[in-house]
Design brief:
Distance between the termini: 38 Å
Radius of gyration: 20 Å
Largest sheet: 8 strands, mixed
CATH class of the largest domain: Alpha Beta
Bound molecules: pyridoxal-5'-phosphate
Number of domains: 2
Mean pLDDT: 95
Order of helices and strands: EEHEEHHEEHEHHEEEHEHEEEH
């Protein structure tokens, strides 16, 4: 007998306030569900560490914002919180972590427009293990290619129906870009706009840093660390990880900045990262084959920011 796939499903159901656990080895969706037939729905991906879901409020708020953008009425935040807690507890019971360091669970919140002809959304939570590649890439870093997203950086405001700032289920383009990167020997992608701006990764936010030392005029050394991300109104998803890290970095004395950024800004940076909720902070070693900064500074800044990011709570 094969071992069950490490997956727990919990449906939001008014008859079950804590969520209804469903058999993950059996079909659970109607074939006409518009999430499946049209990618018409919204989702969030979060990470539970030691049983606690990181920055859950920011994810719930973004889920609500994405649902508003597609005019979808989804269950309230209390229902999602309860179902997510049920999913994490059930997952950790069924698939206990071998070591405390391995106690990470990916928690996805998904809401679709429901089966065709119905006006009730389908809403569920799924708990699964984090991909091994992501955990490895936090340590080794990644090689990235720049790919044209095909939109200019002002289109989000002009054409809100493109849903550029919403996290919808329509991720086929993002996945195609990642497959393209893998075919050309890279690990990931940074999208650029048709007017030459840096946007985001297919599943991550772009960060860059400058690190400078100068004489403080008192015989000592002044260290300046500056963390920059593309401007949020350029048709990108506002990252919950970027938001949380910016707050922590500011408290730790980092200067913060927002784009517009161009590819040359990436090449001139001391370090570049792709940051997201599951893989966390992945240092970028090369972009289009060109090395970013130096190994030493990349590692130093990555260690510093990873420690800050690990310290953020729920
Ligand atoms: N941008 C896109 C397109 C994403 O899909 C994601 C996450 O999946 C992010 C950015 C990073 O968001 P977060 O930090 O909230 O995971």
């Amino acid at each position: 007998m094969t071992a069950p796939a490490p997956l727990v499903l919990v449906f939001l159901d008014p008859a079950h306030p804590a969520g209804r656990i469903a058999d993950a080895s059996k079909p659970q969706l109607m074939a006409t569900d518009q999430g499946a037939t049209r990618g018409d729905g919204v989702f969030e991906s979060m990470l539970a560490v030691g049983g606690e879901i990181r920055k859950i409020q920011a994810h719930l708020d973004r889920l609500q914002g994405s649902a508003r953008a597609i005019d979808l009425e989804i269950p309230g935040q209390d229902g999602w919180r309860a179902a997510a807690a049920t999913a994490v507890t059930a997952y950790r019971e069924q698939f206990p972590a071998a070591t405390p360091e391995d106690d990470e669970v990916v928690v996805k919140l998904i809401a679709s427009r429901g089966p065709e002809g119905s006006d009730t959304p389908t809403a569920w939570v799924q708990a699964s293990p984090p991909p091994a590649a992501g955990r490895r890439q936090r340590e080794t870093g990644i090689d990235v290619v720049l790919l044209d997203r095909g939109y200019d950086s002002t289109v989000a405001e002009r054409a809100p129906w493109l849903l550029l700032g919403a996290k919808t289920l329509s991720y086929a383009v993002n996945m195609a870009a990642l497959r393209h990167a893998h075919k050309v020997g890279a690990d990931d992608v940074i999208f650029t706009s048709s007017d030459g701006r840096v946007l985001e990764g297919p599943t991550s936010t772009v960060l860059l840093a400058h690190y400078e030392t100068s004489d403080d005029g008192d015989g000592g050394t002044r260290v300046t660390r500056r963390l920059i991300t593309p401007q949020l109104d350029s048709g990108i998803l506002p990252g919950t990880s970027q938001g949380a890290l910016f707050t922590a970095a500011k408290e730790a004395g980092w200067e913060l900045g927002y784009g517009p950024l161009e590819p040359e800004d990436l090449f001139a940076a001391d370090a570049v990262w792709l940051i997201s909720s599951i893989r966390l902070l992945a240092p970028v070693n090369h972009i289009d084959g060109r090395e970013i900064g130096t190994v030493e500074i990349r590692k130093q800044l990555t260690d510093e920011l990873s420690e800050l990011f690990a310290g953020i709570g729920g």
